UniProtKB/TrEMBL annotation:
NCBIfam families for this protein: yjdL_sub1_fam
InterPro entries in alphabetical order: Dipep/tripep_permease, MFS_dom, MFS_trans_sf, MFS_Transporters, POT_fam, PTR2_symporter_CS
Organism whose genome encodes this protein: Pedobacter agri
Record's keyword terms, sorted: Cell membrane, Membrane, Peptide transport, Protein transport, Transmembrane, Transmembrane helix, Transport
One Pfam assignment: PTR2
Principal location: membrane
Membrane topology recorded in Swiss-Prot or TrEMBL: Multi-pass membrane protein
Record protein name field: Peptide MFS transporter
Domain of life: Bacteria
A GO molecular function held by the record: peptide transmembrane transporter activity
Cellular compartment(s): Cell membrane
Length: 589
Protein backbone atom coordinates (compact mmCIF):
# COMPACT_ATOMS: atom_id res chain seq x y z
CA UNK A 1 0.00 0.00 0.00
CA UNK A 2 2.81 2.38 0.91
CA UNK A 3 4.54 1.68 -2.40
CA UNK A 4 1.46 2.55 -4.44
CA UNK A 5 1.06 5.87 -2.66
CA UNK A 6 4.70 6.76 -3.30
CA UNK A 7 4.29 5.89 -6.98
CA UNK A 8 1.12 7.94 -7.20
CA UNK A 9 2.88 10.88 -5.56
CA UNK A 10 6.01 10.82 -7.73
CA UNK A 11 5.50 14.45 -8.74
CA UNK A 12 8.93 14.93 -10.30
CA UNK A 13 8.19 12.38 -13.02
CA UNK A 14 6.19 15.07 -14.89
CA UNK A 15 8.04 18.38 -14.88
CA UNK A 16 7.25 21.89 -16.09
CA UNK A 17 10.30 24.18 -16.16
CA UNK A 18 12.18 21.78 -13.89
CA UNK A 19 9.45 21.47 -11.25
CA UNK A 20 6.34 19.27 -10.82
CA UNK A 21 3.30 20.27 -12.89
CA UNK A 22 1.33 20.47 -9.64
CA UNK A 23 3.47 23.42 -8.53
CA UNK A 24 2.10 25.44 -11.45
CA UNK A 25 -1.49 24.44 -10.70
CA UNK A 26 -0.87 25.99 -7.27
CA UNK A 27 0.89 28.89 -9.00
CA UNK A 28 -2.20 29.81 -11.04
CA UNK A 29 -4.72 29.14 -8.26
CA UNK A 30 -2.75 31.40 -5.94
CA UNK A 31 -2.41 33.95 -8.74
CA UNK A 32 -6.19 34.31 -9.10
CA UNK A 33 -6.65 34.57 -5.33
CA UNK A 34 -3.97 37.26 -5.05
CA UNK A 35 -5.55 39.05 -8.03
CA UNK A 36 -8.74 39.35 -6.03
CA UNK A 37 -7.06 40.20 -2.70
CA UNK A 38 -4.69 42.88 -3.97
CA UNK A 39 -7.19 44.22 -6.49
CA UNK A 40 -9.66 44.90 -3.69
CA UNK A 41 -6.96 46.05 -1.26
CA UNK A 42 -5.68 48.63 -3.77
CA UNK A 43 -9.12 50.24 -3.86
CA UNK A 44 -10.26 50.00 -0.24
CA UNK A 45 -8.50 52.99 1.34
CA UNK A 46 -8.95 55.15 -1.77
CA UNK A 47 -12.66 54.35 -1.90
CA UNK A 48 -13.19 55.05 1.80
CA UNK A 49 -11.27 58.37 1.76
CA UNK A 50 -12.46 59.74 -1.61
CA UNK A 51 -14.88 62.64 -1.53
CA UNK A 52 -18.59 61.86 -1.50
CA UNK A 53 -18.96 64.26 -4.43
CA UNK A 54 -17.47 64.23 -7.92
CA UNK A 55 -17.26 61.92 -10.92
CA UNK A 56 -16.33 58.84 -8.85
CA UNK A 57 -17.63 59.46 -5.31
CA UNK A 58 -16.41 57.46 -2.33
CA UNK A 59 -17.45 57.58 1.31
CA UNK A 60 -15.36 60.58 2.43
CA UNK A 61 -13.96 58.94 5.59
CA UNK A 62 -11.09 60.47 7.59
CA UNK A 63 -7.75 58.78 6.88
CA UNK A 64 -7.45 57.45 10.43
CA UNK A 65 -10.81 55.67 10.18
CA UNK A 66 -10.05 54.19 6.77
CA UNK A 67 -6.62 52.94 7.83
CA UNK A 68 -8.05 51.46 11.05
CA UNK A 69 -10.48 49.29 9.08
CA UNK A 70 -7.76 48.53 6.51
CA UNK A 71 -5.45 47.34 9.29
CA UNK A 72 -8.14 45.20 10.90
CA UNK A 73 -9.12 43.65 7.57
CA UNK A 74 -5.57 42.77 6.50
CA UNK A 75 -4.79 41.55 10.02
CA UNK A 76 -7.81 39.23 10.17
CA UNK A 77 -7.02 37.99 6.66
CA UNK A 78 -3.80 36.54 8.09
CA UNK A 79 -5.16 35.66 11.53
CA UNK A 80 -7.93 33.30 10.39
CA UNK A 81 -5.44 30.88 8.74
CA UNK A 82 -4.64 29.57 12.22
CA UNK A 83 -8.18 28.18 12.50
CA UNK A 84 -8.30 27.25 8.83
CA UNK A 85 -5.06 25.28 9.09
CA UNK A 86 -6.33 23.43 12.18
CA UNK A 87 -9.67 22.50 10.57
CA UNK A 88 -7.93 21.25 7.42
CA UNK A 89 -5.35 19.24 9.39
CA UNK A 90 -7.98 17.57 11.56
CA UNK A 91 -11.20 17.36 9.58
CA UNK A 92 -11.62 18.33 5.91
CA UNK A 93 -8.14 18.12 4.37
CA UNK A 94 -6.20 20.76 2.45
CA UNK A 95 -8.07 20.42 -0.84
CA UNK A 96 -11.60 21.04 0.39
CA UNK A 97 -10.33 23.82 2.65
CA UNK A 98 -8.92 25.60 -0.42
CA UNK A 99 -12.17 25.14 -2.37
CA UNK A 100 -14.36 26.31 0.54
CA UNK A 101 -12.12 29.32 1.11
CA UNK A 102 -12.23 30.30 -2.56
CA UNK A 103 -16.06 30.07 -2.58
CA UNK A 104 -16.39 32.29 0.52
CA UNK A 105 -14.01 34.87 -0.97
CA UNK A 106 -15.96 34.91 -4.23
CA UNK A 107 -19.13 35.74 -2.27
CA UNK A 108 -17.21 38.35 -0.28
CA UNK A 109 -16.10 40.23 -3.38
CA UNK A 110 -19.63 40.05 -4.76
CA UNK A 111 -20.92 41.67 -1.57
CA UNK A 112 -18.25 44.41 -1.75
CA UNK A 113 -19.51 45.32 -5.22
CA UNK A 114 -22.74 46.62 -3.59
CA UNK A 115 -20.84 49.60 -2.20
CA UNK A 116 -23.92 51.81 -1.88
CA UNK A 117 -24.66 50.43 1.61
CA UNK A 118 -22.09 49.88 4.42
CA UNK A 119 -23.68 46.59 5.48
CA UNK A 120 -22.52 44.97 2.22
CA UNK A 121 -18.95 46.17 2.76
CA UNK A 122 -18.83 44.78 6.31
CA UNK A 123 -20.43 41.48 5.19
CA UNK A 124 -17.98 41.26 2.30
CA UNK A 125 -14.96 41.85 4.54
CA UNK A 126 -16.18 39.13 6.94
CA UNK A 127 -16.57 36.62 4.12
CA UNK A 128 -13.17 37.54 2.71
CA UNK A 129 -11.26 37.07 5.96
CA UNK A 130 -13.07 33.78 6.69
CA UNK A 131 -12.42 32.44 3.20
CA UNK A 132 -8.79 33.50 3.35
CA UNK A 133 -8.43 31.54 6.58
CA UNK A 134 -9.33 28.31 4.80
CA UNK A 135 -7.42 29.10 1.62
CA UNK A 136 -4.09 30.60 2.63
CA UNK A 137 -2.35 28.10 4.94
CA UNK A 138 -3.51 25.06 3.02
CA UNK A 139 -2.11 26.15 -0.33
CA UNK A 140 1.35 26.34 1.22
CA UNK A 141 0.75 23.06 3.08
CA UNK A 142 0.10 21.24 -0.22
CA UNK A 143 3.27 22.75 -1.66
CA UNK A 144 5.31 21.74 1.37
CA UNK A 145 4.16 18.11 1.15
CA UNK A 146 4.99 17.98 -2.56
CA UNK A 147 8.64 18.78 -1.80
CA UNK A 148 9.01 16.65 1.34
CA UNK A 149 11.52 14.35 -0.37
CA UNK A 150 13.27 17.17 -2.25
CA UNK A 151 14.20 19.74 0.45
CA UNK A 152 17.03 21.15 -1.67
CA UNK A 153 14.42 22.32 -4.19
CA UNK A 154 12.15 24.01 -1.67
CA UNK A 155 13.62 27.51 -1.72
CA UNK A 156 13.39 27.62 -5.51
CA UNK A 157 9.85 26.22 -5.47
CA UNK A 158 8.64 28.76 -2.93
CA UNK A 159 10.18 31.60 -4.92
CA UNK A 160 8.40 30.40 -8.09
CA UNK A 161 5.19 30.08 -6.07
CA UNK A 162 5.80 33.63 -4.85
CA UNK A 163 6.00 34.73 -8.47
CA UNK A 164 2.45 33.37 -8.84
CA UNK A 165 1.43 35.41 -5.81
CA UNK A 166 2.88 38.55 -7.33
CA UNK A 167 1.65 37.88 -10.84
CA UNK A 168 -1.86 37.94 -9.39
CA UNK A 169 -1.13 41.00 -7.29
CA UNK A 170 0.32 42.76 -10.34
CA UNK A 171 -2.70 42.09 -12.53
CA UNK A 172 -5.20 42.70 -9.72
CA UNK A 173 -3.87 46.13 -8.75
CA UNK A 174 -3.39 47.09 -12.39
CA UNK A 175 -6.84 46.12 -13.67
CA UNK A 176 -9.06 46.47 -10.58
CA UNK A 177 -7.27 49.74 -9.84
CA UNK A 178 -7.81 51.06 -13.36
CA UNK A 179 -11.48 50.04 -13.48
CA UNK A 180 -12.22 51.17 -9.91
CA UNK A 181 -10.57 54.60 -10.22
CA UNK A 182 -12.06 55.19 -13.69
CA UNK A 183 -15.19 57.42 -13.45
CA UNK A 184 -16.63 55.61 -16.48
CA UNK A 185 -16.76 52.42 -14.38
CA UNK A 186 -16.34 53.10 -10.67
CA UNK A 187 -15.59 51.35 -7.40
CA UNK A 188 -18.32 48.71 -7.68
CA UNK A 189 -16.93 47.36 -10.93
CA UNK A 190 -13.42 47.27 -9.48
CA UNK A 191 -14.60 45.25 -6.48
CA UNK A 192 -16.73 43.01 -8.70
CA UNK A 193 -13.84 42.27 -11.07
CA UNK A 194 -11.88 40.88 -8.12
CA UNK A 195 -14.72 38.43 -7.44
CA UNK A 196 -14.89 37.19 -11.02
CA UNK A 197 -11.29 36.01 -11.01
CA UNK A 198 -11.59 34.47 -7.55
CA UNK A 199 -14.37 32.35 -9.02
CA UNK A 200 -12.13 31.39 -11.95
CA UNK A 201 -9.42 30.31 -9.50
CA UNK A 202 -11.85 28.17 -7.52
CA UNK A 203 -13.11 26.32 -10.62
CA UNK A 204 -9.60 25.79 -11.99
CA UNK A 205 -8.38 24.25 -8.72
CA UNK A 206 -11.48 22.08 -8.32
CA UNK A 207 -11.14 20.49 -11.75
CA UNK A 208 -7.38 19.84 -11.44
CA UNK A 209 -7.17 18.85 -7.75
CA UNK A 210 -6.38 15.19 -8.50
CA UNK A 211 -2.96 16.19 -9.82
CA UNK A 212 -1.82 16.25 -6.17
CA UNK A 213 -2.16 12.49 -5.71
CA UNK A 214 -2.84 11.62 -2.08
CA UNK A 215 -1.85 15.06 -0.75
CA UNK A 216 -4.63 17.07 0.83
CA UNK A 217 -7.25 14.33 1.14
CA UNK A 218 -9.42 14.17 4.24
CA UNK A 219 -7.23 13.05 7.16
CA UNK A 220 -7.89 9.58 8.54
CA UNK A 221 -9.09 9.39 12.12
CA UNK A 222 -6.55 8.19 14.68
CA UNK A 223 -3.87 8.10 12.00
CA UNK A 224 -0.55 9.27 13.47
CA UNK A 225 1.76 10.48 10.71
CA UNK A 226 5.50 10.18 11.33
CA UNK A 227 7.90 11.72 8.84
CA UNK A 228 10.46 9.27 7.46
CA UNK A 229 13.31 11.69 8.21
CA UNK A 230 11.99 12.74 11.59
CA UNK A 231 13.61 11.60 14.82
CA UNK A 232 11.15 9.07 16.34
CA UNK A 233 11.42 10.88 19.67
CA UNK A 234 10.22 14.08 17.98
CA UNK A 235 7.25 12.30 16.40
CA UNK A 236 5.45 11.82 19.71
CA UNK A 237 2.26 13.80 20.10
CA UNK A 238 1.99 16.81 22.37
CA UNK A 239 -1.80 17.10 22.70
CA UNK A 240 -3.42 20.31 23.87
CA UNK A 241 -4.68 20.08 27.44
CA UNK A 242 -8.04 21.52 28.50
CA UNK A 243 -6.13 24.37 30.15
CA UNK A 244 -4.29 25.08 26.87
CA UNK A 245 -7.52 25.12 24.89
CA UNK A 246 -9.29 27.43 27.37
CA UNK A 247 -6.32 29.82 27.37
CA UNK A 248 -6.06 29.85 23.59
CA UNK A 249 -9.80 30.47 23.36
CA UNK A 250 -9.56 33.40 25.78
CA UNK A 251 -6.61 34.92 23.89
CA UNK A 252 -8.45 34.50 20.58
CA UNK A 253 -11.63 36.16 21.87
CA UNK A 254 -9.75 39.13 23.37
CA UNK A 255 -7.66 39.55 20.21
CA UNK A 256 -10.64 39.26 17.87
CA UNK A 257 -12.76 41.71 19.86
CA UNK A 258 -9.84 44.16 20.05
CA UNK A 259 -9.18 44.03 16.29
CA UNK A 260 -12.87 44.61 15.47
CA UNK A 261 -13.32 47.19 18.24
CA UNK A 262 -10.40 49.34 17.06
CA UNK A 263 -11.98 50.66 13.83
CA UNK A 264 -15.50 50.46 15.30
CA UNK A 265 -14.53 52.70 18.24
CA UNK A 266 -12.91 55.24 15.91
CA UNK A 267 -15.87 55.31 13.53
CA UNK A 268 -18.73 55.26 16.09
CA UNK A 269 -17.03 56.83 19.14
CA UNK A 270 -18.08 53.96 21.44
CA UNK A 271 -15.87 51.13 22.67
CA UNK A 272 -16.30 47.64 24.14
CA UNK A 273 -13.39 48.28 26.52
CA UNK A 274 -15.01 51.16 28.36
CA UNK A 275 -12.67 51.24 31.36
CA UNK A 276 -9.15 52.26 32.33
CA UNK A 277 -6.37 51.04 34.60
CA UNK A 278 -4.27 53.95 35.78
CA UNK A 279 -3.15 55.83 32.68
CA UNK A 280 -3.91 52.88 30.37
CA UNK A 281 -7.16 52.83 28.41
CA UNK A 282 -9.27 49.67 28.39
CA UNK A 283 -8.29 48.62 24.87
CA UNK A 284 -4.58 48.88 25.73
CA UNK A 285 -5.09 46.85 28.92
CA UNK A 286 -6.95 44.14 26.97
CA UNK A 287 -4.28 43.74 24.31
CA UNK A 288 -1.45 43.70 26.89
CA UNK A 289 -3.23 40.93 28.85
CA UNK A 290 -3.74 38.94 25.63
CA UNK A 291 -0.07 39.38 24.72
CA UNK A 292 1.14 38.17 28.13
CA UNK A 293 -1.13 35.12 27.98
CA UNK A 294 0.03 34.36 24.45
CA UNK A 295 3.71 34.48 25.43
CA UNK A 296 2.94 32.21 28.41
CA UNK A 297 1.15 29.54 26.33
CA UNK A 298 3.86 29.73 23.66
CA UNK A 299 6.65 29.09 26.19
CA UNK A 300 4.62 26.35 27.87
CA UNK A 301 3.97 24.51 24.60
CA UNK A 302 7.52 24.78 23.27
CA UNK A 303 8.97 23.56 26.60
CA UNK A 304 6.99 20.30 26.26
CA UNK A 305 8.74 19.23 23.03
CA UNK A 306 12.01 17.33 22.76
CA UNK A 307 15.18 19.52 22.88
CA UNK A 308 15.96 19.33 19.16
CA UNK A 309 12.42 20.15 18.03
CA UNK A 310 12.22 22.83 20.73
CA UNK A 311 15.32 24.54 19.33
CA UNK A 312 13.92 24.51 15.81
CA UNK A 313 10.63 25.99 17.00
CA UNK A 314 12.53 28.78 18.77
CA UNK A 315 14.13 29.63 15.42
CA UNK A 316 10.67 29.84 13.82
CA UNK A 317 9.53 32.19 16.62
CA UNK A 318 12.59 34.44 16.16
CA UNK A 319 12.04 34.64 12.40
CA UNK A 320 8.33 35.30 13.00
CA UNK A 321 9.25 38.16 15.37
CA UNK A 322 11.28 39.84 12.62
CA UNK A 323 8.39 39.19 10.22
CA UNK A 324 6.06 41.26 12.42
CA UNK A 325 8.20 44.37 11.98
CA UNK A 326 8.78 43.69 8.30
CA UNK A 327 5.05 43.64 7.52
CA UNK A 328 4.28 46.54 9.86
CA UNK A 329 6.52 48.61 7.59
CA UNK A 330 5.93 46.92 4.25
CA UNK A 331 2.13 47.11 4.47
CA UNK A 332 2.27 50.89 4.44
CA UNK A 333 1.98 50.19 0.70
CA UNK A 334 -1.79 49.76 0.94
CA UNK A 335 -2.25 52.58 3.45
CA UNK A 336 0.01 55.60 3.97
CA UNK A 337 1.98 55.02 0.74
CA UNK A 338 -1.27 54.87 -1.24
CA UNK A 339 -2.32 58.15 0.38
CA UNK A 340 1.13 59.58 -0.42
CA UNK A 341 0.68 58.51 -4.06
CA UNK A 342 -2.82 60.02 -4.28
CA UNK A 343 -2.34 63.32 -2.45
CA UNK A 344 1.39 64.10 -2.41
CA UNK A 345 2.76 62.81 -5.74
CA UNK A 346 2.78 64.54 -9.16
CA UNK A 347 0.72 62.14 -11.30
CA UNK A 348 -0.65 64.31 -14.12
CA UNK A 349 1.35 63.78 -17.33
CA UNK A 350 1.15 65.35 -20.77
CA UNK A 351 3.28 65.69 -23.90
CA UNK A 352 6.50 63.66 -23.95
CA UNK A 353 6.05 62.59 -20.32
CA UNK A 354 2.69 61.01 -21.20
CA UNK A 355 4.18 59.21 -24.22
CA UNK A 356 7.06 57.84 -22.15
CA UNK A 357 4.66 56.63 -19.45
CA UNK A 358 2.33 54.97 -21.98
CA UNK A 359 5.21 53.10 -23.63
CA UNK A 360 6.71 52.09 -20.27
CA UNK A 361 3.30 51.01 -18.95
CA UNK A 362 2.70 48.94 -22.09
CA UNK A 363 6.05 47.17 -21.72
CA UNK A 364 5.70 46.44 -18.00
CA UNK A 365 2.17 45.13 -18.58
CA UNK A 366 2.53 43.10 -21.73
CA UNK A 367 5.97 41.51 -21.18
CA UNK A 368 5.11 39.88 -17.80
CA UNK A 369 1.74 38.80 -19.16
CA UNK A 370 3.47 37.15 -22.14
CA UNK A 371 5.81 35.32 -19.75
CA UNK A 372 2.91 34.12 -17.59
CA UNK A 373 1.05 33.02 -20.72
CA UNK A 374 4.12 31.01 -21.76
CA UNK A 375 4.06 29.26 -18.35
CA UNK A 376 0.35 28.59 -18.97
CA UNK A 377 1.06 26.88 -22.29
CA UNK A 378 3.89 24.87 -20.71
CA UNK A 379 1.41 23.60 -18.13
CA UNK A 380 -1.13 22.82 -20.87
CA UNK A 381 1.32 20.55 -22.69
CA UNK A 382 1.80 18.42 -19.56
CA UNK A 383 -1.70 18.37 -18.09
CA UNK A 384 -4.35 19.06 -20.76
CA UNK A 385 -4.94 15.37 -21.55
CA UNK A 386 -5.88 14.55 -17.96
CA UNK A 387 -7.34 17.86 -16.80
CA UNK A 388 -8.90 19.42 -19.89
CA UNK A 389 -11.75 21.29 -18.16
CA UNK A 390 -9.50 22.89 -15.56
CA UNK A 391 -7.14 24.05 -18.30
CA UNK A 392 -10.00 25.44 -20.40
CA UNK A 393 -11.25 27.48 -17.42
CA UNK A 394 -7.71 28.76 -16.86
CA UNK A 395 -7.44 29.73 -20.53
CA UNK A 396 -10.79 31.55 -20.39
CA UNK A 397 -9.55 33.59 -17.44
CA UNK A 398 -6.46 34.60 -19.37
CA UNK A 399 -8.52 35.55 -22.41
CA UNK A 400 -10.52 37.98 -20.22
CA UNK A 401 -7.26 39.35 -18.76
CA UNK A 402 -5.83 40.02 -22.22
CA UNK A 403 -9.07 41.73 -23.26
CA UNK A 404 -9.00 44.03 -20.23
CA UNK A 405 -5.32 44.88 -20.76
CA UNK A 406 -5.91 45.81 -24.41
CA UNK A 407 -8.94 47.93 -23.41
CA UNK A 408 -6.92 49.75 -20.73
CA UNK A 409 -3.91 50.46 -22.95
CA UNK A 410 -6.10 51.61 -25.86
CA UNK A 411 -7.84 54.17 -23.65
CA UNK A 412 -4.58 55.39 -22.11
CA UNK A 413 -3.07 56.06 -25.55
CA UNK A 414 -6.25 57.88 -26.64
CA UNK A 415 -6.28 60.28 -23.66
CA UNK A 416 -4.82 63.76 -24.26
CA UNK A 417 -3.54 63.94 -20.66
CA UNK A 418 -2.65 60.99 -18.49
CA UNK A 419 -3.24 60.93 -14.75
CA UNK A 420 -1.34 57.96 -13.40
CA UNK A 421 -3.73 56.03 -11.11
CA UNK A 422 -2.70 56.07 -7.45
CA UNK A 423 -3.07 52.28 -7.46
CA UNK A 424 -0.52 51.98 -10.29
CA UNK A 425 2.45 52.43 -7.97
CA UNK A 426 1.49 49.29 -6.06
CA UNK A 427 1.95 47.39 -9.31
CA UNK A 428 5.68 48.14 -9.15
CA UNK A 429 6.14 45.79 -6.19
CA UNK A 430 4.79 42.86 -8.18
CA UNK A 431 6.63 43.90 -11.34
CA UNK A 432 9.97 43.95 -9.54
CA UNK A 433 9.26 40.56 -7.97
CA UNK A 434 8.34 38.99 -11.31
CA UNK A 435 11.56 40.45 -12.76
CA UNK A 436 13.92 39.67 -9.88
CA UNK A 437 12.51 36.48 -8.31
CA UNK A 438 14.19 34.11 -10.81
CA UNK A 439 17.58 35.70 -10.08
CA UNK A 440 17.08 35.44 -6.32
CA UNK A 441 15.79 31.87 -6.68
CA UNK A 442 18.99 30.85 -8.51
CA UNK A 443 21.07 32.60 -5.83
CA UNK A 444 19.41 30.51 -3.09
CA UNK A 445 20.18 27.32 -5.04
CA UNK A 446 23.87 28.26 -5.51
CA UNK A 447 26.89 28.04 -3.22
CA UNK A 448 26.32 31.70 -2.27
CA UNK A 449 23.13 30.84 -0.38
CA UNK A 450 23.38 32.74 2.96
CA UNK A 451 21.85 31.68 6.28
CA UNK A 452 18.28 32.51 7.30
CA UNK A 453 19.39 35.31 9.64
CA UNK A 454 21.55 36.99 6.99
CA UNK A 455 18.65 36.83 4.50
CA UNK A 456 16.30 38.37 7.05
CA UNK A 457 18.81 41.01 8.10
CA UNK A 458 19.59 42.14 4.57
CA UNK A 459 15.86 42.17 3.76
CA UNK A 460 15.12 44.48 6.68
CA UNK A 461 17.97 46.82 5.73
CA UNK A 462 16.73 47.03 2.13
CA UNK A 463 13.24 47.80 3.44
CA UNK A 464 14.64 50.65 5.54
CA UNK A 465 16.53 52.07 2.55
CA UNK A 466 13.24 52.24 0.63
CA UNK A 467 11.64 54.35 3.35
CA UNK A 468 14.78 56.51 3.48
CA UNK A 469 14.08 57.41 -0.17
CA UNK A 470 10.54 58.50 0.77
CA UNK A 471 11.83 60.44 3.78
CA UNK A 472 14.26 62.34 1.56
CA UNK A 473 11.73 62.84 -1.23
CA UNK A 474 9.11 64.26 1.15
CA UNK A 475 11.53 66.65 2.90
CA UNK A 476 10.13 69.61 0.94
CA UNK A 477 6.53 69.01 2.11
CA UNK A 478 5.51 71.57 4.78
CA UNK A 479 4.30 70.32 8.17
CA UNK A 480 0.58 69.63 8.19
CA UNK A 481 0.17 69.82 4.39
CA UNK A 482 -2.80 67.83 3.06
CA UNK A 483 -1.59 67.86 -0.57
CA UNK A 484 1.72 68.27 -2.38
CA UNK A 485 3.34 67.36 -5.71
CA UNK A 486 6.67 65.57 -5.35
CA UNK A 487 8.40 63.49 -8.01
CA UNK A 488 7.28 59.92 -8.73
CA UNK A 489 10.88 58.72 -8.56
CA UNK A 490 10.81 58.47 -4.75
CA UNK A 491 7.87 56.08 -4.74
CA UNK A 492 9.46 54.05 -7.54
CA UNK A 493 12.74 53.75 -5.60
CA UNK A 494 10.87 52.87 -2.41
CA UNK A 495 8.95 50.07 -4.11
CA UNK A 496 12.14 48.69 -5.65
CA UNK A 497 14.00 48.44 -2.34
CA UNK A 498 10.90 47.16 -0.53
CA UNK A 499 10.54 44.45 -3.15
CA UNK A 500 14.14 43.33 -2.81
CA UNK A 501 13.66 43.20 0.95
CA UNK A 502 10.50 41.14 0.49
CA UNK A 503 12.30 38.61 -1.72
CA UNK A 504 14.94 38.15 0.97
CA UNK A 505 12.38 37.60 3.75
CA UNK A 506 8.89 36.45 2.80
CA UNK A 507 9.20 33.38 0.51
CA UNK A 508 12.35 32.27 2.31
CA UNK A 509 10.54 32.47 5.65
CA UNK A 510 7.82 30.10 4.42
CA UNK A 511 10.47 27.71 3.20
CA UNK A 512 12.29 27.65 6.54
CA UNK A 513 9.08 26.99 8.46
CA UNK A 514 8.46 23.91 6.32
CA UNK A 515 12.06 22.72 6.83
CA UNK A 516 12.21 23.23 10.58
CA UNK A 517 8.99 21.57 11.77
CA UNK A 518 7.67 18.01 11.22
CA UNK A 519 5.15 17.43 8.44
CA UNK A 520 2.35 16.72 10.91
CA UNK A 521 2.75 20.26 12.30
CA UNK A 522 2.99 22.11 8.97
CA UNK A 523 -0.59 23.42 8.88
CA UNK A 524 -0.65 24.84 12.40
CA UNK A 525 2.90 26.27 12.15
CA UNK A 526 2.01 28.08 8.94
CA UNK A 527 -0.92 29.40 10.95
CA UNK A 528 1.49 30.72 13.59
CA UNK A 529 3.58 32.31 10.85
CA UNK A 530 0.51 34.07 9.50
CA UNK A 531 -0.30 35.22 13.03
CA UNK A 532 2.98 37.15 12.96
CA UNK A 533 1.97 38.68 9.62
CA UNK A 534 -1.46 39.51 11.08
CA UNK A 535 0.09 41.41 13.98
CA UNK A 536 2.35 43.25 11.56
CA UNK A 537 -0.60 44.21 9.37
CA UNK A 538 -2.58 45.60 12.29
CA UNK A 539 0.43 47.61 13.46
CA UNK A 540 0.76 48.88 9.87
CA UNK A 541 -2.81 50.17 9.89
CA UNK A 542 -2.45 51.72 13.34
CA UNK A 543 0.86 53.44 12.53
CA UNK A 544 -0.34 54.49 9.09
CA UNK A 545 -3.37 56.10 10.71
CA UNK A 546 -0.99 58.42 12.56
CA UNK A 547 0.22 60.01 9.33
CA UNK A 548 -1.82 63.19 9.75
CA UNK A 549 -0.86 63.65 13.43
CA UNK A 550 2.86 63.07 12.87
CA UNK A 551 2.91 65.22 9.73
CA UNK A 552 1.13 68.06 11.53
CA UNK A 553 3.38 67.95 14.61
CA UNK A 554 6.68 67.17 12.88
CA UNK A 555 6.85 66.46 9.12
CA UNK A 556 6.18 63.85 6.46
CA UNK A 557 9.90 63.02 6.48
CA UNK A 558 9.70 62.21 10.21
CA UNK A 559 6.83 59.81 9.54
CA UNK A 560 8.85 57.86 6.98
CA UNK A 561 12.05 58.02 9.06
CA UNK A 562 10.31 55.92 11.73
CA UNK A 563 10.00 53.15 9.14
CA UNK A 564 13.62 53.68 8.11
CA UNK A 565 15.41 53.38 11.44
CA UNK A 566 13.45 50.48 13.02
CA UNK A 567 13.92 47.98 10.12
CA UNK A 568 17.62 48.82 9.68
CA UNK A 569 18.24 48.43 13.43
CA UNK A 570 16.43 45.07 13.52
CA UNK A 571 18.27 43.90 10.40
CA UNK A 572 21.64 44.46 12.03
CA UNK A 573 20.42 42.79 15.25
CA UNK A 574 19.20 39.58 13.57
CA UNK A 575 22.46 39.21 11.63
CA UNK A 576 24.40 39.44 14.90
CA UNK A 577 22.36 36.45 16.14
CA UNK A 578 23.59 34.24 13.27
CA UNK A 579 25.89 31.94 15.31
CA UNK A 580 23.18 31.26 17.92
CA UNK A 581 20.42 30.65 15.37
CA UNK A 582 22.65 28.40 13.27
CA UNK A 583 23.27 26.19 16.32
CA UNK A 584 19.54 26.00 17.12
CA UNK A 585 18.70 24.88 13.56
CA UNK A 586 20.61 21.58 14.01
CA UNK A 587 21.97 21.39 10.48
CA UNK A 588 18.90 22.68 8.61
CA UNK A 589 20.08 24.88 5.73
Amino acid sequence: MQTSIETKDDFFSSKVLGHPAGLFVLFFTEMWERFSYYGMRALLVLFLTSSMFGDNPGWGWPREHALAIYGSYTSLAYLTPILGGFIADRFIGYRWAVILGALLMTLGHLSMAFEFNPIFMYLGLCLLVTGNGFFKPNMTSILSHMYKKHPQKKDGAYTIFYMGVNSGAFLGMLLCGYIGENPNWGWSYGFGLAGIFMFVGMLQFYFTKNIFGSIGLKPEKNNVVIDEDEDPAEAKRNPFSVFDIVLIGLISIIGLVWIINDPASKITGSTVFNFSVGSLTGDNVAIIVALILFIFILIKRIAQYTPQLRDKMIVVIVLAFITIFFWASFEQAGGSMTIFAKDYTARLLEGNAKIIFNVANTLITVIPLVIITYVLFSLFRKTFAKFALGNIILAAGFAIIWGLVIYMLKNQYADVKAEVPATWFGVLNSLFIISCAPIVSKLWESKFNPTATVKNGLGMILLGIGFAALAYGSSSIPSGAKVASVSMIWLILAYFFHTMGELFISPVGLSYVSKLVPGRMIGIMFGIWYLAIAIGNKIAGTMGGEIDKITAKYSMSTFFLIFTLIPIGLGIFIMLLTPIIKKLMHGVK
